[in-house]
Design goal:
Strand content: 15-25%
Largest sheet: 7 strands, mixed
CATH class of the largest domain: Alpha Beta
Number of domains: 2
CATH topology of the largest domain: Aminopeptidase
Order of helices and strands: HHHEHHEEEHEHEE
Structural class: alpha+beta
CATH architecture of the largest domain: 3-Layer(aba) Sandwich
Radius of gyration: 22 Å
Number of strands: 7
Number of helices: 7
Length: 207
């Protein structure tokens, strides 16, 4: 394949991939690279309308990425009564298919003493954390974030503020089981490490 043709295809692929991103920051970054490649392609083939249009798109993406970087977001933790929360039930039902993709074994009705926390981001309920306290560990049953806000900020805020909902000193840390590759990668980014407890594979992170 000629080099010029490859550059054109690369720009097309990057722009197409960006349009499939649900996370707005990721969309802007990938779209920026795609538009920049297309702009370069326009120069190389002498198509100045292609160069100008995609150069403009590149500048627009840079502008909005700077604005997103400047935004100061507010995070809060909202503890909820798991059995009695009607909003919790609506949230779980609405996101049922997406949740099952990361937590295929999650079943709220099978839990003995579940506790729950909504992660609020600019007062929007973007994440749900359901766990049980079984000394010496906090067992995580659900740690779900809606697609538009999957940038690790929610989880990092949550685990920095564990003192707000874990009051006892006799807990060593969090444990969670996972068979989903994407979820396992997420856990590793947050500092969880694979270990065996009672002959079973878990991911563990200290409080």
């Amino acid at each position: 394949m000629p080099v010029l043709e490859f550059v054109g295809y690369l720009g097309s692929v990057l722009v197409a991939v960006s349009l499939m991103m649900s996370n707005i920051v990721r969309l802007r970054w990938i779209n920026l690279f795609g538009a920049a490649v297309f702009s370069t392609y326009g120069i190389l083939i002498g198509a100045f309308p292609v160069f100008l249009l995609n150069g403009f798109i590149t500048l627009v993406d840079i502008y909005y990425l700077i604005q997103l970087k400047k935004q100061r977001e507010s995070f809060e933790l909202l503890k909820i009564s798991v059995p009695n929360s009607s909003f919790l039930r609506r949230f779980l039902q609405f996101h049922k298919e997406s949740i099952s993709g990361f937590f295929p074994e999650f079943d709220l009705h099978k839990l003995i003493d579940p506790q729950g926390i909504f992660i609020l981001r600019n007062m929007l309920p973007v994440g749900l954390f359901i766990y049980e306290e079984k000394a010496p560990y906090i067992r995580i049953h659900l740690d779900y974030v809606i697609p538009e806000y999957r940038d690790l900020k929610n989880a990092r805020f949550l685990f920095r503020r564990t003192g707000e909902f874990i009051k006892d000193d006799y807990f060593d840390g969090f444990i969670v089981r996972s068979t989903v590759k994407a979820h396992r990668r997420y856990l590793e980014k947050l500092g969880f490490r694979e270990m065996r407890i009672d002959g079973t594979e878990w991911y563990f992170r200290r409080l």
